[in-house]
Amino acid sequence: MTGDEDVRDIIGMRHRGATVLAWAFAGTFAVLAWYARSDLDRAWPQVVGVAALLAGALVLVGAPGDPLPHRWTAVVAGAGPIAALSVFPFLPSEYAFALTTWPIGGGAVLTSYLAVRGRIAVTWLSVAITAAVVVWWAVARGHGVLDGVLRCLPSTTVTLTATFFALTLRPVARQTFVMRARTTERRAAEAAAETAREERSRRRDFLDREARPMLERLATGVPLTAAERLECRIVEARLRDSVRAPGLLSPRLTAAADGARRRGVDVVLLDDGGLRDLAPPAAAAIRDRIAEAVESLARGSVTARAVPPGRALAATVLLRAPDGATTRIELPVPA
After folding, report:
1. Structure-derived torsion over alpha carbons of residues 107, 111, 114, 120, reported in degrees to the nearest 10
2. Which of 237, 248, 301 lies closest to 271, judged by CA?
3. What are the distances in angstroms from CA 141 to CA 89, 127, 200, 273?
4. DSSP output for 189-236
5. What is the pLDDT of residues 208-229, one digit of tens each?
6. pTM for the predicted model, two decimal places
7. Measured at the alpha carbon of residue 87, what is the angle toward residues 86 and 93, in degrees to the nearest 5?
């Protein structure tokens, strides 16, 4: 799973509600920290622990990539141990509020989702560090190692369940994304084939409309008149324009080019894609400007070109009079 696709799409973590839940998650533990303050020798370090949980939760729902990139993995994996270090060094052996040990559960929630995000080994390293802090506290306060282990056991089973869930979910997610990519590729290929068929049909209709009458006339073997020879040149020029400048053609510009050629003007139309990304009204306005320039020339030659995309100009028109005078018209991309 790469790019914009990761396991968050499968479990709904891209939804805006996931961010709301992340804040609610941190808010819940902030409330617990507030109630636990009377049990601690120093209560203010809990602010650091809650902030670490919030940062980890926001990273889980917002950071892209699968598996989760290492720099974000460190933020999530470190949240549980940081929260534990914000409470247990200041926690006496006896305390009144049962949920004063909230960092154990808070860290377990984050590590469970970290496993789903593809970092199972780091997940259990985080669990082990948090457990080590709790066991150290239990031993230091005279409760013993077993007491510390038992305090961590319920949350550890949650992470264990999440690990098995991740091992099941992630292969399914990969297969889902592969199938989605194949479907997208197939639809793109079908769309391209349909576009090609439509283009072939359009060109066939164009040839049938423009060239067939003249070809049938040539097939009779009767010598062409001067007017018919001129019409042959006009038809040949239209066919050339349809190949070299499809993006420039419009009914008005085609009519203007035909009229200019009948006057003896050499008309060359070239299309390098400059109108491709413009809004239809803007592209139509530029075609009309080119048609006006072609219509204005009584003799000589005119070369109109749509420049490549990404430039300040959309098209240029070069007019050459019979006496050699040239006029260059630049048509900028509309703002």
Report:
1. 150
2. 248
3. 10, 21, 84, 77
4. HHHHHHHHHHHHHHHHHHHHHHTHHHHHHHHT-PPPPHHHHHHHHHHH
5. 776 777 777 777 878 878 877 8
6. 0.57
7. 150
